[in-house]
Amino acid sequence: MTLGKTAVVLGGSVAGLCTAGALAPHFEQVVVLERDELPAEAEHRRGVPQSKHPHFLLNSGRRAIGELFPGFEDELIAAGGLHLMPSMDAAYLDGEGWSARKSSSMTMVYSSRVLIERVLRDKVRGMANVGIREGVAVSGLTVRGGGTRDGAVTGVYVTTSTGDEHIDADFVVDAMGRGSSVGAWLVAAGWPEPQVQTLDAKVTYTSRWYDLPTADQRPVSWWWRHLVIMPTPDKGQHPAEHEFLVNFFPIEGNRVIACMGSWGIQMPRTADAFIESARRVRTPLFAAAMDKCAPTSEVHLTRSTGNKWRRYDRWSRPPQGLAFIGDSICAFNPFYAQGISSASGSALLLREHLSRAGRLDAEFCARFLAGQRKVLGVPWRLAMVRDQGYECAVGTEKPPEWRRRVLASVSSPAFSLIVGAAREDAVVDEHFAKVFNLDESLGEMMRNPRVIAGLMRYRIRAALGRNRIPFAFDPQAEPPDTDYSPGGAADTATRTAA
Ligand SMILES: Cc1cc2nc3c(=O)[nH]c(=O)nc-3n(C[C@H](O)[C@H](O)[C@H](O)COP(=O)(O)OP(=O)(O)OC[C@H]3O[C@@H](n4cnc5c(N)ncnc54)[C@H](O)[C@@H]3O)c2cc1C
Q1: pLDDT tens-digit profile of 373-405?
Q2: How many Å apart are CA 185 and CA 107, to the nearest integer?
Q3: Other CB atoms within 10 Å distance of the CB of residue 41
Q4: Model confidence band, residue 371 (pLDDT cutoffs 50, 70, 90)
């Protein structure tokens, strides 16, 4: 038995599509309303400008999407997505130098954001009771008893090419992204202004797309598929580009997105400035790699990256018949790659709540918001730990200066300690991967006695010079391809010598 006749999803991007998958089993029909005309293929469109930048799909999101749409991952890979093991396939420059390669249990699927969306869209289009209406702009809500105990959303107004329309709905989900007006419409209808938590660490992304050389034309030293350059720990004089977080991010079609990002630093906007900046990052490898590729796009720059959590969960009387999924409720600094995973995790939670619900009353909406608070709290706290240390950050969550200084001085060394210990210790590695992928909170990891013991053992062995895996290989040289996995070439050579 279904919970109602019509559920309406506002916005047909990743959050909206995941939501449609969550609603479909529980309503007679689901209508997705999207302002853009949607491309048949994996192409950029106006409503999702961030698609021009690299998008990591964390494993919690990969799993949540797979539960909502069985077969998603196979189809993403069949469409060109790359199934890689970052610890073996990525050259990673962190701290003083390149990290050693070694195998781990964590794999990731790399692709463009537009391909993820296209595969999701195909999945949704295959659902018999879901319809996507394109070129339809949502312009308002109809409500009953705004702000009262029985207050509810009952439908939406839309503007189409042929005029205005009203759609009755038993349930509405806002998935219109960072710029959604639903909060303002609810306030105008009688609900109180929601508290909004913000922290904008002034992150800027600048990206350009390239065709890679074919496999037989790549230098032999290119064992890596993905290149990551973390900001320098050096506190002395250096070019601004040494503070950049750089990604040479492989996607489908033998292509790569070259991306530089920074906290609070001016970033290049033109092709010439992009290349000049690339030559000043802290390893020559990035620019050298770009020189071997053919640019296929202009330079794309975005500053729409602040953390923002609209706390609808703190309303004492949230509207019946309404939920929020994706950036419309909580958007993150994209450096932490949490948006898609938080959106798909929320959509999966909504499906679970719907499958247990007898009816869609006020308690249902309040319970869902409370459950979603936990899903969003994990990535939110992770983003805060890092971003609260930046002097350039502004917003309600900016800590007092003394606390900011403590965070700034502790967070980077603590991160390096965890990364170092994860190299040596499989248990620390496993928990660190879970935190990165939003499968465990940072607090849970740091309360785990086995992890604490692993960190201490690493620290002591490092002081005694007894750690097994070397690190900080010269950043001016090519990253070494030696495999330091247990049983790998380096390990075997060491054992043989001993
Ligand atoms: C630079 C950058 C890099 C990022 N990198 C990552 C990453 O590595 N990993 C990750 O997981 N996340 C990343 N994100 C976040 C990620 O893009 C989003 O969290 C994710 O796409 C979910 O977005 P959404 O569907 O909630 O909103 P959006 O993708 O913004 O979609 C909103 C949709 O609503 C539609 N819409 C808006 N208004 C209306 C209206 N009035 N009527 C009808 N339709 C409307 C829009 O056209 C659009 O389709 C990044 C974000 C940025 C900015």
Answers
A1: 999 999 999 999 999 999 999 999 999 999 999
A2: 42
A3: 8
A4: very high
184 exposed, middle or buried (CB, 10 Å; 0-12, 13-18, 19+)?
A: exposed
Largest CA distance in the chain: 80
> Considering Cα of 393, then 397, then 400, then 406, what sign does the dihedral take?
negative
User: From the alpha carbon of 178, which atom of ligand 1 is closest?
Assistant: 30
Convert the pLDDT of each residue in 187-196 to its tens digit. 999 999 999 9
For the question of whether the overall pTM of this predicted structure is more than 0.90, the answer is yes
Domains and their CATH numbers in the chain: 4-55+112-197+307-384 (3.50.50.60), 203-302 (3.30.70), 401-497 (no CATH)
Where would I find the H helices in 252-338? 271-280, 285-291
CB atoms within 10 A of CB 120: 26
CA distances from 246 to 43, 58, 87, 226, 315 (A): 24, 18, 17, 11, 40
Q: For residue 79, which of 48, 51, 40 has the smallest C-alpha distance?
A: 40
**Atom 47 (ligand 1) nearest CA:** 47
Pocket test for ligand 1, best of 9, 10, 13, 378 (most atoms within 8 A of CB): 13
Burial 462-494 (b: 16+ CB within 10 A, else e): eeeeebebebebebeebbbebbbbeebebbeee
CA–CA separation, 322 and 312 (whole Å): 11
Ligand 1 atom showing the smallest separation from residue 16 Cα: 25
Ligand 1 pocket mutation pick from 116, 330, 340 by most atoms within 8 angstroms of CB: 340
| Contact residues of ligand 1, CB 6 A cut-off | 10-16, 33-36, 47-48, 50, 53-56, 137-138, 175-177, 205, 302, 304-305, 326-328, 334, 337-341, 343
Tens digit of each residue's pLDDT (9 = 90 or more) over 267-287: 999 999 999 999 999 999 999
